[in-house]
Amino acid sequence: MDPAGNGAHPDGKRGSAEEEVLERIEAFRRRRPRLRDDFINSAHGAGGKASAALIDGVFLTAFGNDALAPLTDGALLTLPSGERLAFSTDSSVVNPLRFPGGSIGHLAIHGTVNDVAMMGAVPAWVSAAFILEDGFPVDELKAIVADMAEAAVNAGVKVVTGDTKVVSKGAADGLYIATAGMGVIPVGVELDARSVRPGDRVLVSGTIGDHGVAVMLARGELGIEADINSDTAPLGSMVQDLLAAAPGTRWLRDPTRGGVATVCNELARDAEVAIILNEADLPVRPAVNGACEILGIDPLYVANEGKLVAVVAPEDADAALAALQAHPLGGNAALIGEVRDDPPGMVVINTGFGGNRIVDMLAGDPLPRIC
After folding, report:
1. What pTM does this model have?
2. What domains does the chain contain, in order, with CATH numbers?
């Protein structure tokens, strides 16, 4: 049996061994993480299986409603006037507060505006709440807020409201920032996992894994030296360029915690399709790939803060790729796979050795506190 759905018994019948494999695949496909922990651990914040279990077992149980149920990057809200808004919230707890290519201030803005942009909206307004530790240097706070202001200007948004709290020394690791954002969805833009169809193409807007590796190396705990910068950046203008060039864009997501592998698994589950990736087409910087090999992790699971994954209709694939590559942030954009109908609910990667393997959601938290 070919996990990518290319194999079949020569006489059209399923042998007993193949039936057993199919049953195992079906059980794998229908897996749904369940919350079995009595205490919170770092994996619950990593964006993978444990995060999904926590959301299902605690938050959906308490807050379940139609706006929350899709579990997309933001809520889709329709005003009485008929206008549609995208509304999202985020928090930044990165350690260290500064890293090559950015700071917690940049992340606070970019993380929120990118979530709004993935809904097809034009980001416009942001709120910011600061949790400060007693003794945190005012000059350092000013510098981080200046980074936020710079990021907001570059993203085309305004910080319009906020809040400040101070906690005891040692209770907040210096500084945490919580943000929320809102934007208007243009008429005619419809992005939904349910619109994804077999034959659609999967694209990524650039090299993957840059941010997570940059932050990990910035901690200086591993003794690895490499010239790797975070990719943190606002994606609103890229999204609008993509939608203009490829009106057949079905779905967007920024692969932050859990990386490309996890968002593809979420799409496969929600759309009940198979996502087939090609390992040879994945854009990964050599330095990032080398660091991941040393760390024993797969770049597919490493967080990004300035990349998007797009699914587009096959007839729009070339136009979509050209639009991404023409954008200042998309020079390394690539077509990395396609959507098929079998095996539904799963992600499979065609490896460089000619075989294939199943790509599951992230388990555990190999790179904690990276956003």
Report:
1. 0.88
2. 70-185 (3.30.1330.10)
